[in-house]
Amino acid sequence: MRKADKVIITTAVTGSVNVPSQSPHIPLSAQQVAESALEAIDAGSAIVHLHARQPDGRPTADPDVFEDIVQRITPYTDAVINITTGGSSAMTMEQRLAAPVRLQPELASLNMGSMNFVYAGIADKVTAWTHTWEKPYVLNTYSQPFINTFESIEHTLRTLGAFGTRFEYECYDIGHLYSLAHFVQAGLANPPLLIQGVFGVLGGIGADHDNLEHMVRVADRLFGDDYSFSAFAAGRNQMEFGTHAAWLGGHVRVGLEDSLWLGKGRLAQSNAQQVEKIRRIVEDQGREIAAPNDARQMLALRGPAKAGDSTTVRAPAR
Length: 318
Hints:
Blueprint: E1 6-7, E2 9-12, H1 30-43, E3 47-50, E4 52-53, E5 59-60, H2 63-73, E6 80-83, H3 93-103, E7 107-111, H4 122-125, H5 134-139, H6 150-161, E8 166-171, H7 174-185, E9 193-199, H8 209-223, E10 227-233, H9 238-247, E11 251-254, E12 261-263, E13 266-267, H10 271-284, E14 288-289, H11 292-299, H12 306-309
Parallel strand pairs: 1-14, 2-3, 2-11, 3-6, 6-7, 7-8, 8-9, 9-10, 10-11
Antiparallel strand pairs: 4-5, 12-13
């Protein structure tokens, strides 16, 4: 693993897992997502990882919504924009790629395999639903896996790679590291790699700290110093795993996509609150926080998308 003096904080702003009934603080509209992203950047996040939602909170792959979000962010910051290619298990591959193909970001997420990605347990905890779509949506994950075949991964690497997009390789289990190694050997995934270890999702590797260290050991064997490592755990273990990843010399990811909490029994009121907390922890370890251009240098990013610069700019809201 490449151990950097400066820690990259990524903020996953809204995601497609948590639903409005769980927290009133999840950003939903394009303006809310953009505002929340900008607050996180002001707090120290070098990268913002973006999903999109309809105003009622339903996840969407609509490239118009993504474009609206991005154009409300980029006039005010040089932070790295990372657009999901994961979306949700309810979306087709064509839908999931529509926004990154249009916007050609310098960074995009890429799930390294098909898996059971289950968050049906949310239904056991919500006592009053805000919208009728929410309960069927979360329960459906018990029977509908998230599909990302090798063919889909190769298609994504080739399609977005042609624009100069690089990837946040999301690895939910040890086998995903070996899948990534396959694409490195095929010349389709090019170092330096950004590996995002994801822990605590039902269907993936558990949120045990031994698993985090094991994932790093396996990645070291497969990739040597050709990768940077970041990690997060879903839910209540978010900050513990960020702390551990930083202590190992890696990077961190926080955000309301991954956890709604700031502490035990305390909902985070914003993404910025989570960034501020992990920043204090990292700085207490004696490490510096990476600025956007530090992140670009470490991850060999090419800078903001030229295609995005040429689209019709709408009046941003800030």
